Structure formats: C-alpha cells, structure tokens
C-alpha cells in the first residue's frame, strides 16, 4: 500500500486548534472592547477604576459604648441568668409562690457582688468570696481581651464606665426591687452605701487586673510616673499570693488535727442532703477562711462575734455548725508561734528570683498593706446575731506592711551589700591583674634592656678585636724584625741548647719544630 492510501498511525486523538477570539463590542455597550470568557462572562479591557479613598472617622462616645458594652455586659448577663435559674429551681423545689421571684433574684445579685442582705431585722454582710472571685475573673478576662492590642485614653475611659456602670445600675435595681418587696415579704433594702461601695470595689479590682502590666506601664509613661510602681504592685500581689498558699496549708493541717470536731459537726445533720448543703456552703466560704488564716499568720486577731482567736490566745463563743469552722482551736497551743514563719517564707519565695531594689520593696510593702485592707473589708462583715466576724482590718493591714515591706527591704539591702561586695572583689581582681600585667611588662622591658646591653658589649668587644688586627704590610715588617731578632739570638740559643743536646741527642733526620718554621719562613721570603 502506498503512503497515500495506507492509514496514518497516530499516538493519540487529534485536537483541533482553539479558535482565536477577537474582541467584539457588546450590543448597546459604550465602554471598551471585551471578549467572551469560557464561563459566559465578559472580560473588559481598559483602565481599572481607582480604589475609593479610605477616610478615617474619629470614633464618638456612642460608637465606643456600642463597641464596649456587649463585651463588658456579658459576665453580668450570665450572672443575672444564673440568678433567674436558681430562683426558679428554689421556688419550685420549696413550693413557694412566684411572687417572691423578683426579691430572690435581687438578693442573689447582691450576694454575688458582696452586697449586704437584710431580712427580719438582721444584716448579713459576711458573704462568700468564691462567687465574687469567679465573677471578677470573668470580667477581668473580658477586659484583657479588649485592651490587649491597642487602646486610647478615651477608649479606656469608656471601657471603665461600662465595666463599673453596668453592675452599679444592676445593684441599684436590686435594691429598688427589695425595697418594693419589703411591703409583702420580710425583706428590706440593703444599706445603699455599703452595697454600692462593695460593688464598685469588686469590679474596680477586676478592671485593674484585666488591664495588664503593659497597659499600666503605658499609663505611667503617659502621666510621667515611674514605671517601677507597677513592679512594686506586682511584687505585693505575688507576696500575698504566696502567703495565702501558706495559710491554706496551715488551715488544712488544723482541719486534720481537729478531725473529731469535723465529725461532730456532720453528725448534727441527720440527712445526706443537709450534709451536702452545708459542705457546699463551707466550700463557698473557703476563701474567707483562708483570708482569716493569713491574718492570723501575720499575728493579727480574728473576731468571732463576742469571741476572738489569735496565735496568743482564744476566747470562743458557740459557733455556727459549719465544717469550715471545725478547724478553729479551742485554745492557743504552744506551737502556734511556729505559724509566724509562714509570711517570711511567702515573701522570700516571691522575691527569690528577682530581688527588688530598696525603693521598690518599700513601695511594695505599702501596696501589700492597701491590698490586705481591701481584701479584709470584702471578706469580713456582720453575721446576723453574732455581730462582726472576720480579721481586724487595720491591724492586719499594718502587720502586712511590717512583714512584707520589712522583709522585702531587708532582702533588698542584703542583696545590695552582696552586689557591692562582689563588685569590689571584681575591681580588686582587675587591679591585681593590671599590676601583674605591669610587672610582667617591666620584667620584659628589663630583659630586653639586658639583651641590648649584652649585644652592645659584644659589638664593642668585636670592634676592639678588629682594631687590634694589623695590616699585611705591617705584618711583613713585623715578621722581618722577628727574624732578625731570632738571627741575633741564634748563637746564644745554640750554646744554651748544646748541653741539652748532649743529654738527649736528636736524630739526624729529625728537625725541631722551630727550625722547621724558620726554614719555611725563609723559603717564603725567597
């Protein structure tokens, strides 16, 4: 078969070249030319439109409020929802009327924010710290997420207004609800000043903690304050934290020692539900107990109504049947003074890695005293007919200043003296090294001078030896003079040598060395 008639073998199916598209104008279009896209769209040619200019708009007060209000209101909203749920469960479980629902929710909000609760003529302001700490932690986390990137002074002011304003409004609303319910139920409105002060104090602490170290340093630079104030405050918080940990350990040891009293307390509750309920109440009051124990480790006194307890003595009254109070000793033990080592160890543990300077330590003691005062005021209060229960506020604050500030200052002074001693030792070592180097240089200089003197002496000796050498002409004259002298002295020498020759006659063929030398010299002259 010829090539024209034989079938062509191909490696694969043949592909037709794609048709070339040419720009076409769309009907009715007045813009630039375009081509059809594979998907059916049109691609337009020409200059792209310029991007619109972005203009910065200064945020207003309302815009800031709209930005920060949802962030800060969320923890408070969760608290209110929790109060509603708990109120519904409690009223349904006790088959109570729903008329008490508003007053129950209002009292729940006040309890969580450490506001006093008044009923039947009695006031309870000794409220559990655990729910309040949980709420403050949630608020501080929301604040930190808001300010961690960048924030202005105006933003910070609006944020503080939202953080403090929302709980303040809720506290006022709860007080109004209780005032309205007092006409129907045996409840009363709380002391308004105390409720507002505790609410603002709690949320103010949450705001300050959530702002973080970096923002506080920026504020110090903004208002021309030394930034080491932030370090002093953090050192105080760290020291109080370690003291609280030590106080918790002391409380657990006391609870183990008084295990029999703990069994007696649980024995007073016949049902399991009662034991669970009283255990839950004790856990809620556990931070209050730790604060009181920390005050005792400072050497302060804790009031229990008409009674009191300290490391130096105990005067007790009948206490409420709570498992948390089973660790309270009936009298002061002799080994109780050992507890005074807890603040010392706590402060040393807080500064062991980074010893502060003297001024930072002193100001840190003032911050520790202030924080101790605030914590004691929030953790203590009136407990109905018992009266005031809790540590002595001013005594605890003063002792915290003495322990934390004093130990920190002593540690700072010791560290300063040690640093100066080390620097002095380093300087002395450097001076000794300099002296050794100087002595080495002097010895090297002396050795080089001695070598130079030796070289100079050798050169001088060589010069003298070279001067003593005689010229060849002078040598020939000298040799002739020597020969003449020897010739004149020859007969006399032969007469003197004759007796010697008789004693030891020389061989006829041998010639003495002087005679051989004379013959050689005469041959040379010839």
Would you kindly provide a brief summary of this structure?
This protein has 14 helices and ten strands. With 526 residues, the protein is mostly helical.
Write up what this structure looks like:
- It contains 14 helices and 10 strands.
- Helix 1 (61-93) packs antiparallel against helix 3 (129-147) and helix 6 packs across helix 9 (286-298).
- It starts with 33 loop residues before the first strand and ends with a helix.
- Among the domains are: 59-225, no CATH class; 227-412, no CATH class.
- 23% of the residues are buried.
- The strands form 3 sheets. The protein has a 5-stranded antiparallel β-sheet with strand order 8-7-6-10-9. It has a 3-stranded antiparallel β-sheet with strand order 4-3-5. Strands 1-2 form a two-stranded antiparallel ribbon.
- By secondary structure, the chain is mainly α.
Q: Specify Rg, calculated over alpha carbons.
A: 54 Å
Largest sheet: 5 strands, antiparallel
Number-wise, the strands total 10
Percent of residues in beta strands: 5-15%
- Mean pLDDT over all positions: 80
Order of helices and strands: EEHHEEHHEHHHHHEEEHHEEHHH
Put simply, the count of helices is 14
Low-confidence stretches: 1-12, 25-36, 493-513
Shape: elongated
Lateral strand order in the biggest sheet: 8-7-6-10-9
Distance between the termini: 127 Å
Structural class: mainly alpha
Give the helix level as a range of percent.
Answer: 55-70%
């Amino acid at each position: 078969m010829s090539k024209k008639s034989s079938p062509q073998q191909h490696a694969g199916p043949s592909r037709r070249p794609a048709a070339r598209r040419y720009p076409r104008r769309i009907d009715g279009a007045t813009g630039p030319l375009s081509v059809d896209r594979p998907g059916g769209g049109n691609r337009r040619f020409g200059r792209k439109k310029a991007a619109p200019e972005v203009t910065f708009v200064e945020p207003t007060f309302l815009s800031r409020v709209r930005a920060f209000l949802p962030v800060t209101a969320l923890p408070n909203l969760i608290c209110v929802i929790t109060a509603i749920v708990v109120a519904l469960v409690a009223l349904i479980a006790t088959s109570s009327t729903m008329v008490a629902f508003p007053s129950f929710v209002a009292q729940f909000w006040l309890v969580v924010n450490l506001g006093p609760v008044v009923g039947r003529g009695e006031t309870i302001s000794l409220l559990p710290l655990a729910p309040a700490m949980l709420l403050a932690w949630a608020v501080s986390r929301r604040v930190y997420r808001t300010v961690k990137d960048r924030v202005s002074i105006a933003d910070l002011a609006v944020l503080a207004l939202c953080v403090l304003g929302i709980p303040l409004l809720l506290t006022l609303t709860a007080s109004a609800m209780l005032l309205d319910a007092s006409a129907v139920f045996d409840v009363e409105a709380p002391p308004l000043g105390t409720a507002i002060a505790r609410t603002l104090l709690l949320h103010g602490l949450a705001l300050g903690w959530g702002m973080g170290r970096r923002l506080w340093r920026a504020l110090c630079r903004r208002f021309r304050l030394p930034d080491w104030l932030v370090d002093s405050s953090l050192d105080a918080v760290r020291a109080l934290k370690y003291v609280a940990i030590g106080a918790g350990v002391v409380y657990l040891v006391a609870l183990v020692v008084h295990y029999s009293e703990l069994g007696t307390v649980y024995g007073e509750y016949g049902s399991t539900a009662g034991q669970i309920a009283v255990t839950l109440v004790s856990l809620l009051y556990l931070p209050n107990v730790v604060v009181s124990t920390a005050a005792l480790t400072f050497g302060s006194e804790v009031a229990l109504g008409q009674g009191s307890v300290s490391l130096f003595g105990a005067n007790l009254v009948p206490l409420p049947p709570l498992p948390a109070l089973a660790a309270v000793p009936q009298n002061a033990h002799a080994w109780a003074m050992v507890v005074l080592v807890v603040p010392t160890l706590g402060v040393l543990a807080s500064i062991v890695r980074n010893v502060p300077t003297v001024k930072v330590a002193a100001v840190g003691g003032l911050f520790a005293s202030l924080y101790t005062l605030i914590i004691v005021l929030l953790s203590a209060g009136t407990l109905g007919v018992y009266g005031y229960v809790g540590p002595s506020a001013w005594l605890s604050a003063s002792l915290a200043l003495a322990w934390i500030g004093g130990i920190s200052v002593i540690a700072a002074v010791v560290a300063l003296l040690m640093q100066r001693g080390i620097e002095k030792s380093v300087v002395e070592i450097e001076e000794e090294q300099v002296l050794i180097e100087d002595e080495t240089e002097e010895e090297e200089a002396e050795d080089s001078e001695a070598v130079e003197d030796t070289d100079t002496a050798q050169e001088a000796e060589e010069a003298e030896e070279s001067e003593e050498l005689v010229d060849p002409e002078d040598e020939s004259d000298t040799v002739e003079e020597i020969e003449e002298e020897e010739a004149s002295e020859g007969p006399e020498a032969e007469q003197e040598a004759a007796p010697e020759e008789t004693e030891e006659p020389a061989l006829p063929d041998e010639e003495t060395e002087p005679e051989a030398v004379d013959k050689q010299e005469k041959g040379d002259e010839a």
